[in-house]
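Morning run. Coffee first, then this:
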Amino acid sequence: MANKIMVTGASGFLGHHVVDALLAAGHGVRALNRSTDPRLERPGVELVRGSILDRATLERAVQGCAGVIHLAGKVSRDRRDEAEMRELHVGGTRSVLEAAHSAGVRRVVYASTSGAIACSHDARHIATEDDSYPLAITSTWPYYVTKIEAEREALTLSRKLGLELVCINPSLLLGPGDERLSSTEDVLKVLRGQMPALPSGGSNFVDVRDVAAAAVAALEKGRAGERYLLGALNCSIRQFVTRVAQLGQVKVPHLSAPDAPSRWLAYALQPISRLLGRENPFDPVSIEMSQAFWYFDSFKAARELGFSPRDPDETLRDTIADLRRHVLATAQ
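And here it is:
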C-alpha cells in the first residue's frame, strides 16, 4: 500500500465510495466511524470506533497516516438541528485539523458543499470558486450556514497551522449505495409519486463515484488553500424530475408550485404538524431551497484534478435501480 489515509465519515454515502477509490489507488484506509459497518470490514481497511468530537480517539486514529479525507457531517434541513450541526461541522472540523497537525499530517481534503458557494435567485448566474458565500440567501438554512462556517474555519485554521488543505464542493450526490437516503430521497419521492407539483428553482447533481475519485485526486494533486466545485449537470427542477420519471417509467408531474403560496402553506402547516407529531409534508426549508438556483461550473476541477463526470443519465439509472432494489422492493 502506498500510504495510509484516515477517512472520517467512512460509513456514509460518499465515505464508502471514497474508501473504494482509495483502495483502488493503492492506499490503505483507516476508517473512523461512530458505529460498526460490515461493509468496511475488508482487506486494506482498518476500523477505529469513535467520533470526531472525541479528541483522544481522533488523535489516536490519525497517528501514522499520510493524509486525511474529512467527510463526517450531518445532513438535515430541520432548523432544530442547527446547534448539533454546528458542533459537528465547525467544532468537529477544527478538531480534525488540529489532530492532523499534532500528528504531523500535512495533507487534508475537506468535503464542503457546492451550496456554500453556488446558490442564487438568478437562473442565469453560473457560480465559480471565486464567488463569495451566498449568506443573503442561505442564512436561514442551518445545513448551509454551518457548512459555510466550517469551510471558513477550515481554510483559516489550515493556514495558521501550516496544513495543506483542499476543499471539495460537490453538489447533490446521486448514484448507488445511499442506504440512509441522505441524498437520494428526492429521487425516491418521484418514483413513489410523492411530488405532485414542481418548484420553480434549479439544481445540480453529480455521481457519488465521480466525487470519490475527485477526492482522491484532490488528496494527491489539489492545490492547498483552494476549493473545487464538483457537479455534472445544471438543470431546472422540472427537467430533473421529468427525467427521473421518464427513466423510472412513472407518471411525470406537470403542475407548477407557485413560490409565495408554497412558502405560506409550508409555514402554516408547521405548528399543526408538530402538534400532531407528524412530519410536515411541505417542509419550509425544502420549499425555500427548491426555489433557488444551484448552478455552477466545474471547469477548475476538470483542469486541475482531471474531474470528468459520467453521463448524467447513467447516474440517474443507477440511482433508480439501486432504490428499487434496496428500498422499494423491501417496502412492498
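The CA atoms of residues 247 and 317 lie 7 Å apart. Good start to the day.
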